[in-house]
């Protein structure tokens, strides 16, 4: 094994026990997370602290307690250095209406330190990349919501950042525009090699484009990890059998299993009372019952949760809920 392969990859973002209040209102209440890279969804209901967390990561306001690290830097102490390497697309649409798209994106590139000639070329290129090449000289005030969202995406990646933070990038878009935006975000992560932190309250968006997810509830991180791992936590198996399913149901219940069924498909987990069973133990129980009854099995595999089930389950087990608001002023584009 090479030295490079043996060296663990440092998290792109790390937070440990981060607390933030706006006045007496808690926005983050001890959030802890580590994001290794790729495209990560930051999920949470409105008011769960997502925008506050993004502002902290940009170094625009300090946490009350806890530690933050972005690309190995403390954003509270090294805000300008962090913002040189991070792009940001805010939720709001407060763009200067009389400025042409290409001029606006060029200006943001210059704020990030690009020379004017390079910034001009980069602005034009990135607007072509997001599908606004023919519209790049239009004033922002004449553009649709979908076009302005693309402009915000363009200015977030114009300086070739290592990480881009996207706050509700599909807000206000119709279904076709939303699909187009999600394809662009997936392309940024896959083709451009930019790490993406996508803040959203729409589960389907995260499920479609993200590799990982972080779920915020009441200002705390209640679940985090690769989507496949989060959705594999069903604690049971799915079974499909040939023939009458009722004898199998009766036998499994007689052995204490918890289950429900839809036609010939059974969802089986361990007993509600007594020691918990892992997936392998549940599968062994089902296998033994099927063998005893002589029932042919079509499918026996671990149950995969939907992201909605993960989200709702995390919220229920995330500790005592507190009233969480997110009244922080949103960072301006180019922050």
Strand segment count: 13
Specify the structural class.
Answer: alpha/beta
Straight-line N-to-C gap: 42 Å
The 3D shape can be described as elongated
Question: What is the CA-atom radius of gyration, in angstroms?
Answer: 24 Å
CATH class of the largest domain: Alpha Beta
Order of helices and strands: HEEEHEHEHHHEHEHEEHEHEEHEH
Query: What name goes with the CATH superfamily of the largest domain?
Result: P-loop containing nucleotide triphosphate hydrolases
The mean pLDDT is 85
Tell me the CATH topology of the largest domain. Answer: Rossmann fold
Description:
- The chain is α/β, with parallel strands linked by helices and 335 residues long.
- It has two domains: 9-230, 3-Layer(aba) Sandwich (Rossmann fold); 235-303, 2-Layer Sandwich (Alpha-Beta Plaits).
- The protein has helices spanning 3-6, 50-57, 79-85, 101-111, 116-129, 145-157, 175-190, 203-209, 227-231, 246-254, 279-293, 307-316; strands spanning 13-22, 25-35, 39-43, 65-70, 86-89, 163-167, 195-200, 212-217, 220-226, 236-241, 258-262, 265-269, 297-302.
- Strands 5-6-7-3-8-9 form a six-stranded mixed beta sheet, with helices on both faces.
- Strand 6, helix 7 (175-190) and strand 7 (195-200) form a beta-alpha-beta unit.
- Helix 4 packs across helix 5 (116-129).
- The two termini are 42 Å apart.
- Residues 1-7 and 319-329 have low confidence and may be disordered.
């Amino acid at each position: 094994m090479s030295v490079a392969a043996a060296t663990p990859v440092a998290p792109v973002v790390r937070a440990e026990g981060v607390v933030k209040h706006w006045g007496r209102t808690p926005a983050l209440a001890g959030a802890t997370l580590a994001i290794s890279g790729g495209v990560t969804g930051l999920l949470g209901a409105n008011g769960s602290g997502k925008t506050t967390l993004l502002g902290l990561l940009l170094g625009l306001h300090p946490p009350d307690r806890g530690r933050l690290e972005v690309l190995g830097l403390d954003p509270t102490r090294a805000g300008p250095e962090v913002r040189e390497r991070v792009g940001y697309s805010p939720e709001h649409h407060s763009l200067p209406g009389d400025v042409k798209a290409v001029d606006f994106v060029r200006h943001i590139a210059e704020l990030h330190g690009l020379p004017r000639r390079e910034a001009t070329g980069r602005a034009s290129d990135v607007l072509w990349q997001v599908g606004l090449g023919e519209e790049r000289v239009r004033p922002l005030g004449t553009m649709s919501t979908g076009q302005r969202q693309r402009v915000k995406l363009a200015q977030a990646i114009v300086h070739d950042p290592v990480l881009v933070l996207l706050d509700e990038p599909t807000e206000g878009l119709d279904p076709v525009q939303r699909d187009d935006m999600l394809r662009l975000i997936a392309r940024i992560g896959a083709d451009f090699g930019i790490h993406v932190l996508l803040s959203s309250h729409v589960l389907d968006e995260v499920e479609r484009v993200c590799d990982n997810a972080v779920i915020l509830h009441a200002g705390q991180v209640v679940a985090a990890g690769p989507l496949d791992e989060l959705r594999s936590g069903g604690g049971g198996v799915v079974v499909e059998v040939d023939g009458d399913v009722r004898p199998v149901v009766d036998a499994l219940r007689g052995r204490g299993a918890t289950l429900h069924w839809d036609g010939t498909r059974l969802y089986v987990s361990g007993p509600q009372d007594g020691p918990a069973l892992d997936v392998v133990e549940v599968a062994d129980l089902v296998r033994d019952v099927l063998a005893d009854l002589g029932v042919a099995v079509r499918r026996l595999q671990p149950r995969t949760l939907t992201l909605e089930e993960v989200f709702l389950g995390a919220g229920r087990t995330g500790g005592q809920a507190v009233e969480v608001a997110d009244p922080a002023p949103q960072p301006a584009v180019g922050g």
